[in-house]
Amino acid sequence: MTTITLLTDKTETLEARIRTVVDLEVEAQQLRTQYADSQRQVERLQAEATQSAQTLELTKERMANAEKDHEKAIAAAQKVADLQIHAAGIEANNRVLEATTKLKDEYS
Asked: How do residues 83-105 score in pLDDT, each as one tens digit?
């Protein structure tokens, strides 16, 4: 009877260990699934980060190009304004010269 009891106890112990192993296998499979999900999420986030970095770089390039274009437009507008001022000065000098010549002709 003692042998049967010992064998029964050992059988129960082994069955408990088997259940523990099965539970651990289930938990291990769940952890593998979670790990795979996490890996996919990390890959997706890395792809998004790469895309965001590329978008940021393109935006910086566009801003730099727009700034250069604006500087060129401002420089061109300044040249036009300077030429207009110069032309107005020449026009004013011409009028003064004409008025002076007219006065000179009248007194001559």
From this structure: 999 999 999 999 999 999 988 88
- CA 78 to CA 80: how far, in whole Å? 5
Distance CA 10, CA 89 (A): 115
- In terms of pTM, does the model score above 0.70? no
In the chain, count of helices (H) and strands (E)? 1, 0
Is 48 strand, coil or helix? helix
Buried b or exposed e, range 56-71, using 16+ CB within 10 angstroms: eeeeeeeeeeeeeeee
Instruction: DSSP for 87-98, please give it.
Output: HHHHHHHHHHHH
